[in-house]
């Protein structure tokens, strides 16, 4: 499971949520080391490619394209620095002019759009008014039957001139409003550009503070690496101690099976709780295990066909189910079982996230959960425990006897000997 995470450089969010903070931290160190290793390989490969390109460019034909620098009177390469030559504007002046021009163009563009809308409104307004007035005149003419059509046209002309004056006055007011809005918009855009320039200048002042934070971050990384190295050394030392005690089985015993059918009836009679699953294993059936658990039925089949022959969840010296083993239960159910139990009480359950188990532990301030990887031919805490155990019972006994239980305070270690009610 750990090799797959390092290969893909990805961990499922549900699986990450099952890890505690120290497990996450050490897993981060290992992923970081893998990133550095890949980067080093890529850097070496890039250097080789660049050296090949240089050799190839050296032997190219003389007629190939090239660059020739213009030299000054002193024989050196001629360089012009904007703002320092005679007659050049300073950077601040150029920047001010550019910002003013951009603001003016933007405001002018917006003013043109507003004037188009205003012009359309004015035309529509007076076109409708003229149509109404014509309709009124025609209606009155037909009502009173005016004989002198010339007089009627004179009246109409006077009305048209009056409306024209009103239209011109309305247009003049509209132009004045648009012009004022254009000036205000130009000032607003200029202030925005000026504010953005000041923020860029302020970011340069924050560069020193950022460097100080970077230095502190690097120091913290070194401190975490030092702690991780000490943790690995301590686990190695405890592993050697366990081997001397005979608590860790050799790799040759990984494939040994136990006859679970013998004494099954007596185990059910002597055990305080019935077995959690049927211990009968079908013979001659093989199956392709998915990359991760996808359903409860698949987990049950995996446990029957791969874990029961390895006596997972069984006591070491009998065919009884270990009192700390609770089968397939959820994280919430485990916490409910341990809710009113004393500090140090624990239980082991089949995980629904990985091919393995989860150790749920009653802590002074709450609960802790540790994933046990069983995807290979051994049992170990996922990502943090270098010790590999042939049986699940060996892992539990090792961390009780050596008093090096991962992420469990030393003052609570004697309580590990309790049954995980």
TrEMBL record:
Organism for this UniProt entry: Hymenochirus boettgeri
Superkingdom of the source species: Eukaryota
The keyword Phosphoprotein is assigned to this record: no
Keywords: SH2 domain
Protein name: SH2 domain-containing protein
Biased composition (Basic and acidic residues): 211-236
Record region (Disordered): 197-236
GO cellular component, one term: cytoplasm
Domain SH2: 324-415
Keyword Membrane included in the entry's annotation: no
Pfam family, one: SH2
């Amino acid at each position: 499971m750990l090799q797959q995470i390092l290969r893909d450089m990805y961990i499922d969010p549900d699986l990450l949520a099952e890890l505690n903070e120290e497990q996450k931290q050490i897993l981060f160190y290992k992923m970081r080391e893998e990133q550095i290793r890949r980067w080093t390989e890529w850097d070496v490969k890039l250097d080789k490619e660049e050296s090949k390109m240089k050799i190839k460019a050296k032997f190219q034909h003389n007629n190939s394209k090239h660059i020739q620098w213009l030299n000054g009177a002193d024989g050196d390469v001629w360089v012009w620095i904007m703002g320092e030559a005679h007659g050049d504007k300073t950077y601040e002046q150029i920047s001010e002019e550019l910002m003013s021009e951009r603001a003016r163009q933007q405001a002018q563009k917006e003013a043109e759009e507003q004037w188009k809308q205003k012009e359309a409104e004015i035309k529509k307004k007076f076109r409708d008014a003229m149509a109404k007035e014509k309709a009124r005149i025609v209606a009155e003419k037909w009502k009173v039957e005016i004989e002198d059509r010339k007089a009627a046209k004179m009246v109409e002309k006077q009305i048209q001139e009056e409306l024209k004056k009103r239209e011109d006055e309305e247009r003049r007011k509209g132009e004045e409003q648009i012009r004022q809005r254009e000036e205000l918009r130009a000032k607003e855009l200029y202030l925005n550009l000026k504010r953005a320039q000041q923020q860029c200048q302020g970011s340069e002042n924050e560069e020193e503070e950022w460097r100080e934070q970077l230095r502190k971050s690097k120091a913290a990384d070194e401190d975490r690496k030092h702690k991780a190295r000490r943790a690995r050394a301590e686990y190695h030392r405890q592993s050697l101690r366990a081997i001397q005690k005979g608590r860790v089985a050799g790799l040759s015993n990984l494939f040994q099976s136990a006859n679970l059918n013998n004494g099954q009836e007596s185990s059910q009679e002597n055990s305080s709780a019935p077995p959690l699953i049927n211990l009968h294993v079908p013979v001659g059936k093989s199956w392709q295990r998915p990359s991760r658990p996808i359903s409860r039925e698949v987990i049950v089949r995996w446990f029957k066909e791969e874990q029961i022959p390895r006596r997972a969840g069984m006591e070491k010296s009998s065919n009884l189910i270990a009192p700390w083993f609770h089968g397939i239960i959820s994280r919430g159910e485990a916490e409910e079982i341990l809710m009113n139990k004393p500090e140090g009480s624990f239980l082991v359950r089949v995980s629904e996230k990985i091919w393995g188990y989860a150790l749920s532990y009653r802590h002074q301030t709450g609960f802790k959960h540790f994933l046990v990887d069983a995807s290979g031919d051994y049992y170990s805490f996922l990502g943090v425990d270098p010790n590999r155990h042939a049986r699940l019972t060996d892992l539990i006994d090792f961390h009780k006897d050596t008093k090096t239980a991962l992420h469990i305070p030393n003052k609570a270690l004697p309580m590990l000997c309790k049954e995980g009610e």
